[in-house]
Design goal:
The structure holds 2 protein chains of 2 kinds. Chain A is an alpha/beta fold. Chain A has helices at 13-33, 39-52, 55-67, 69-77, 79-84, 119-122, 127-130, 132-137, 142-148, 185-189, 194-198, and strands at residues 95-100, 105-110, 158-163, 168-173. The longest helix of chain A has 21 residues, at 13-33. In chain B, helix 1 (28-44) runs parallel beside helix 4 and helix 2 packs across helix 4 (68-82). The model of chain B has no long low-confidence stretch (mean pLDDT 97). Classes of the chains: A alpha/beta, B alpha+beta.
Chain lengths: 210, 219
């Protein structure tokens, strides 16, 4: 699986991309002419995942879990309905499990076989998540992968890798940063990064927001 | 299938490179390929396991040299052609050259929010009891089907522990074929890093997969 930037290493890259672009356009025309697709539905699908569904959704879930102990309990007991309370549900998030990071346990999520990812809370996956370097090494050398992301864990921390081989989707709930006592959920959500909910990153610290 | 998609533990792919402020899509064609794939699920009549098999069922070298949306698009073409919904001459011409086949339903803009919100849950009712319970030692079977499977090579033959009985879910190995959903009990199974990777593994790492009962045997 080549990453996106790999596409730009070839001299003939431009014509390759144009060829794909033309082929996709041709298929859309054929399918539209046959009445199999409505282009307005395509536009709406794209708009949904470009503008509405993304990691800000997951950040709200995590921030609420940090701030509201009753919600946190519901989230770890059965995540899909708890996430549904905030209005997030559906495709590629039908069966979500929330994973709790602690000082002794760091969770990390991968799909070695394709690109399974919890869309309703994180949106569509970034290129690196779908690429061979991540999918090959996350299960064999997660500490090495974390170091690619600039993350070093304490030596005694256990790493737990979740390979999403079925239709269960995993959301990592990182540890709440210190120095955030009394913060609103809205402000806490600003600390929650996409990568911290995959397990390849840590949340921002209060000083990072300044 | 033991194809290019089964990447866990393979070497030589280099470091993970994250792109700062990555856009959701990198090119206009990616948007259209993505949306066409989602929209054609309804009239095309295939399921997610057929879709995954169409993506992975290609020479590993080809799989590894394509970008992810190129793979999505190639699989969409395969499924459409298999069902006679489009033909090569139409793709060449860039226009429909014959009357459409009748399809069940197409995705209208008004359907989009509800279809996405509903998703496609895979849990099913069953009257059979689960063969394993949390804490049981199991071995992932050494199976090598040439067709679609979701048991990655890196766990096959290894001993793990059932961590959770998830429920009864659609079985991809059947669902990718005409055999249908054939729901089976699904488990989260945890393996020690050293069990999977030997002395090259990290003793402080545990890896889990979600595995259907037909993939497992008592250890």
């Amino acid at each position: 699986m080549s990453g996106h930037d790999h596409d730009h290493h070839h001299d003939n890259d431009h014509s390759e991309l144009s060829e794909t672009q033309l082929r996709v356009r041709a298929l859309e025309t054929v399918l539209t002419e046959k009445g199999y697709v409505d282009p307005a539905a395509l536009d709406l699908l794209i708009e949904t995942y470009e503008k509405k569904v993304g990691p800000r959704n997951g950040a709200r879930v995590v921030a609420k879990a940090w701030a509201d102990p009753a919600y946190r309990a519901r989230l770890f007991k059965d995540a899909s309905p708890a996430i549904g309370e905030l209005g997030y549900a559906g495709r590629q998030g039908e069966h979500i499990v929330a994973l709790e990071n602690t000082a002794k346990l760091h969770n990390m999520v991968v799909c070695t076989l394709c690109s399974c990812y919890p869309w309703p809370v994180l949106g569509l996956p970034p290129v690196w998540y779908k690429s061979a370097p991540y999918r090959s090494r996350a299960v064999a050398d997660p500490r090495g992968v974390l170091s690619d992301f600039g993350v070093t864990l304490p030596k005694d921390a256990e790493i737990r890798v979740w390979d999403s081989t079925a239709e269960i989707r995993y959301l990592v709930v990182p540890m709440r940063p210190t120095g955030t006592e009394g913060w609103s959920e809205e402000k806490l959500a600003e600390l929650v990064t996409r990568d911290s909910m995959i397990g390849t990153g840590l949340p921002k610290r209060p000083e990072d927001l300044k | 299938m033991n194809g290019g998609q089964d990447l866990g533990g393979t070497h030589g792919h280099g470091p993970v490179k994250s792109e700062a402020n990555e856009p959701v899509f990198h090119d206009e064609w990616e948007k259209r390929a993505f949306a066409l794939t989602l929209a054609m699920g309804m009239p095309g009549g295939w399921n997610i396991d057929m879709l995954r098999y169409a993506r992975e069922n290609r020479p590993p070298g080809q799989y590894l040299s394509m970008s992810y949306y190129q793979i999505w698009f190639a699989a969409l073409e395969v499924l459409l052609k298999e069902r006679g919904l489009v033909a090569d001459d139409e793709l060449e011409a860039g226009h429909s050259l014959r009357a459409p086949k009748s399809v069940k339903r197409i995705l209208s803009p008004g359907d989009v929010p509800q279809v996405l919100y509903r998703g496609g849950p895979t849990e099913r009712q069953t009257s059979t009891a689960a063969a394993f319970k949390a804490g049981d030692k199991i071995r992932a079977k050494n199976i090598n089907p040439p067709s679609h499977t979701r048991l990655p090579r890196y766990v096959r033959g290894h001993v793990g522990t059932v961590e959770r009985v998830i429920g009864c879910h659609v079985f991809p190995d059947s669902n990718a074929t005409a055999a249908g959903e054939n729901p089976q009990w699904l488990y989260t199974v945890r393996f020690d890093g050293r069990e999977l990777w030997g002395p090259d593994g990290d003793a402080a790492v545990k890896v889990s997969v979600d595995a259907w009962e037909p993939y497992l045997e008592p250890a």
